[in-house]
Design brief:
Blueprint (H helix, E strand, L loop, with lengths): L1 H26 L11 H7 L9 H14 L2 H12 L3 H8 L8 H7 L8 H4 L4 H10 L11
Helix pairs in contact: 1-3, 3-8, 6-8
């Protein structure tokens, strides 16, 4: 919901501050925290097209997902909902339609009478998709999680 998107956005922006602040401050002449950033910097940071997203945006997403969704708690929640190989089985048996996103499908999927996975962490579907993808849950080949 709205709260989950807000939490992810806030964690994403914290990720920019921690990961990229030195580069941004060097590029804009080290403004204070309250100075306005140049419009070119704001435009670059607000791009939403995933196919052409800057590396810094992807890094901030990964930071946010890691901050909000712990590795062990995610593993426990995935096993509770899907079993050990449950996500792989779902991905193989019911692949996403063309243009669909398997990570979003899994994040929203209701399994085992439990709430959807994204709701268990009070995050957006997108945040859960990033966490599942970056930790190998969306691969159809076995990996060590």
């Amino acid at each position: 919901g709205e709260r989950g998107r807000f939490r992810f956005t806030l964690a994403h922006e914290i990720g920019h501050w921690i990961l990229h602040r030195d580069c941004v401050l060097a590029a804009v002449g080290a403004p204070s925290l309250f100075d306005e950033a140049p419009s070119t910097t704001i435009t670059t940071l607000q791009r939403a097209d995933r196919s052409t997203r800057p590396r810094e945006e992807i890094q901030a997403d990964l930071f946010a997902a890691s901050l909000l969704i712990g590795r062990q708690p995610l593993h426990r929640e995935v096993q509770a909902r899907f079993g050990i190989d449950g996500i792989r089985a779902i991905l193989v048996e019911r692949p996403s339609p063309p243009g669909g996103d398997p990570g979003r499908m899994i994040a929203k999927h209701r399994a085992g009478g439990l709430s959807p996975l994204h709701e268990a962490f009070d995050v957006s579907v997108e945040a859960m998709r990033v966490a599942l993808d970056s930790r190998g849950y969306l691969s159809t080949t076995p990996t060590l999680l």
